[in-house]
Design a protein that fits this description.
Spore Coat Polysaccharide Biosynthesis Protein SpsA, Chain A, about 240 residues, seven-stranded mixed sheet, alpha/beta
Length: about 240
């Protein structure tokens, strides 16, 4: 089920915030998004994408009912599924999705400003610090794997916020429903020659709540890139065939 409001004209920017088990933090998450949008010209909307049936859904619905800039979207479980549902529902020309629990308003505002002046690029965060040693080691290993398998130049595949214009989204054709959507995005950028602009982010402190990454999901992050590599090879071959025809 998706809770819709009447179409809004003049929406220039859409911020997509997947939320799950974050009922207590949602008010602060929305406040941070509002603070980031304060200096961004044009109309804006904040999409809370609830991908679970917990109390977060009710809280998000209440916030959407009380705030004309907030909309509620629901999606199946999964980080990628929530991102794709949010992008499909978004009305803005400038699109952004980010980790709602760890994104600071200043970093979000900076990413939006960079995105606004780079219409042909994907602007993304590059996290320079991790709060836990095991997360730092895991991130380094995963990013080296991504660079080796896909020849990526980025140093933080999963870093958010990620910001891009609607025309870039149309070229990407994202489909990954799980945790690998950020890798899919970066790999597709390489295939389609879409520039990626990384901006440094130093504060990734979680607002509250519990991280959804566990040992099982971490192992998937290391194993599934091989399947995505096979799929990207098919995409690259199709693109080469189209270019030569």
């Amino acid at each position: 089920m998706q809770v819709e409001k009447p179409d809004v004209t003049g929406v220039a920017t859409s911020i997509i915030l997947p939320v799950y088990h974050q009922a207590l933090e949602l008010s602060e998450i929305v406040e941070r998004a509002h603070a980031a949008l304060a200096g961004i010209p044009g109309g804006a909307e904040i999409l809370l994408v609830a991908n679970g049936g917990d109390a977060t859904l009710t809280t998000a619905a209440n916030l959407a009912a009380a705030d004309p800039m907030v909309r509620l979207v629901t999606s199946p479980r999964g980080w990628g599924a929530a991102v794709i549902a949010g992008l499909a529902a978004a009305r803005g020309e400038l699109l952004c999705y980010t980790n709602s629990a760890r994104t600071q308003s200043g970093d979000l505002a900076l990413a939006l400003r960079y995105g606004a002046v780079n219409p042909e690029a994907v602007v993304k965060a590059s996290r320079k610090q991790r709060n836990q040693a095991i997360r730092r080691v895991g991130s380094v290993l995963y990013n080296f794997e991504a660079r080796a398998l896909f020849g990526l130049a980025v140093w933080d595949v999963n870093g958010t916020p990620k910001v891009f214009h609607r025309g870039v989204l149309d070229r990407l054709e994202l489909s990954e429903q799980g945790d690998l959507i950020d890798l899919e995005l970066c790999a597709l950028c390489k295939i389609h020659n879409i520039p990626v602009v990384e901006i440094p982010v130093y504060n990734t402190t979680r607002i509250n709540g519990k991280a959804t990454t566990n040992m099982r999901s971490a192992l998937r992050l290391y194993a599934k890139p091989f399947a995505i590599r096979r799929r990207m090879s098919a995409v690259r071959a199709l693109r080469t065939a189209d270019a030569s025809s």
